Fold:
Amino acid sequence: MSTTAPGQLLPVQGWAAYIKHRLSHSLDFSSPNPDRWVVVDVESSGLNPKKDRLISIAATAIEFDAQRRPRISLTDTFEVVIKQPPEIVDMIEFEAIDKSNILIHGIGIGAQQCGVKAELALGGFLHYVGDSPLIAFHSWFDEILINKAMRKVLGRSTHKHWLDLEHLAAVLHKENHQLPLDVWMQRYGIECEQRHQATADVLATAQLLMKLWPKLQRRKAIDWKGVKTIANGLKTLPGRNMPT
Structure:
């Protein structure tokens, strides 16, 4: 947590870290893997990614054949619960703060205490992702949480290749209003074994991408650049209310 008071300048070390982070993102010239994409979902201690803690990550790979036909690879997956700091777990008010979220994602205090150390968990996730682009539903949430945790323990972030599946679905269906994942699942008949559990949600998200793929094929957008271009067309939809 920063100790800089409002109106004060960041210390030299703080500015150096900030500039390094900004440059690493703005100068990221890496190319995303064309044949392996990764769908990701996270669980957290709350709904504010800038303040709350990353608790778990789940991911599964989408692989493409020579004809650019995608498939969900159920043998290429990642799942980890991150061990929470002792000072957090031992807080008297911890149960009251996290109780509602624990009821949603089902990762109790005991499971959080027995999780994988953050350095190993996040390092493992980076290795799993490699150069594969990342896809999530409301990806801004996942990206902020993951990168915040990574900068804290690893001093770096993921690559810049992220795509918001909610944006993509909205453009392809010309939706002017933000729709939750449950609505898209119902629309496409996607079943989910246990909603709000990262491993189940990530599979549902991957299935949604599969359902959207025929629309992308008709628009001849079957590579990462083409899909990103369509998703970025969200701003052209009149009247749509976007979250800040």
Observations:
- The chain has ten helices and five strands.
- Residues 1-10 have pLDDT under 50 and may be disordered.
- The longest helix spans residues 198-218.
- Strands lie at 36-44, 54-64, 70-81, 134-136, 162-164.
